Amino acid sequence: MLNAAQKSFSHNFAALARYHETLKELSDINDESSMALLRTLYSVWKHNRQMMVVLITKMLRMTLMSANAVVFWLLSNLDQELHRFWLWEALFIVIKHACGHTNRCKKKFQQMQEKRAKMDRNDGEANQNFCFKEEEDSLGVILDDDVEEKRKELKELQEMLKNLFLNVLHKLVVFLSEHLVKYETAGRNYDTYWYRYMMGRFKEILLKYWHELFEMKQDIDKELFVTAGIDSRILEVYCQFTALRA
């Protein structure tokens, strides 16, 4: 399908739209199915990396794969591409997509809570007038079940986002740790261009998504950074980041 659609962006988008149901069914099986889709995508477009970024973005918006699946694939199967700009561009797009989805759900949940509270404060004729005035409101009449359903959806999205950031940070810590061990074991200077580049990306993630990371700081500390095995040079960078809100 992708080989036949290599002519242009529009050809690719048309192919994805035509086979949307089939691809959706395949990707919904498990994350390994999403991995297979991404590997196929890479095999076709590895020489046109900008197309990779565009198609990953399109497939995310079409819900053909999860954000966590894309992040796992980018940071677990493409070691030879870690120094390339396209991979980090794709990663930031995925994170932005996940953050945006979660924030929109959070905003909608807050709006539903506020409207439900207003409805509860109105009874009798006052409540009827309120409902009449609000009948054009996009939220409509809010029931307790609606609020609870949205609460569950938000909780699931927040858990997904937490796991996504844990995955990204864990991978970066592993990359840096393995580099330090490898070079110091060989008696070589660890401060290479690659090390500086990856450390820069690590710092960029922390600063770019500081708001989300501080909201889940306790979980990140507990599950990732309160570990005896993390090199002090890596831990120092994280401590400097957390000190910004001390």
Automatic annotation (TrEMBL):
SUPFAM superfamilies with a match to the protein in the record: ARM repeat
Annotated ranges, domain MIF4G-like type: 1-211
InterPro entries: ARM-type_fold, CBP80, MIF4G-like_typ-2
Gene Ontology MF, one: mRNA binding
CC per GO annotation: nuclear cap binding complex; nucleus
GO process annotations (BP): mRNA export from nucleus; nuclear-transcribed mRNA catabolic process, nonsense-mediated decay
One Pfam family this sequence matches: MIF4G_like_2
PANTHER family (UniProt xref): CAP BINDING PROTEIN, NUCLEAR CAP-BINDING PROTEIN SUBUNIT 1
Protein name: MIF4G_like_2 domain-containing protein
Species assigned in the record: Onchocerca flexuosa
